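Hi R.,

As promised on Friday, here is the backbone we talked about, encoded as structure tokens. Could you run it through your design pipeline when you get a chance and send me back a sequence?
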């Protein structure tokens, strides 16, 4: 696991096999939530944890730590 601190409009890039697959950007921070913008190719499936079960995945959702 990797934990990063980011400010609004700062982001991180996700790469696979030397290719950028997504960029996550902190869009807005509130008292009880944070909005994250995800820029990714259309072939990258992005799911919220609570949506995992309805997406038809045969595996369990990632463990929360």
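Update: got your reply. Pasting your designed sequence below so it's all in one thread:
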């Amino acid at each position: 696991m990797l934990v990063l601190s980011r400010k609004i409009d700062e982001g991180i890039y996700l790469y696979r096999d030397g290719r950028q697959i997504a960029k996550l950007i902190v869009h807005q921070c509130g008292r009880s939530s944070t909005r994250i913008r995800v820029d990714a190719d259309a072939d990258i499936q992005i799911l919220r944890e609570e949506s995992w079960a309805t997406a038809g995945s045969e595996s369990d959702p990632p463990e929360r730590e």
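One thing I noticed while checking it: The two ends are 9 Å apart (CA to CA).

Thanks again,
M.
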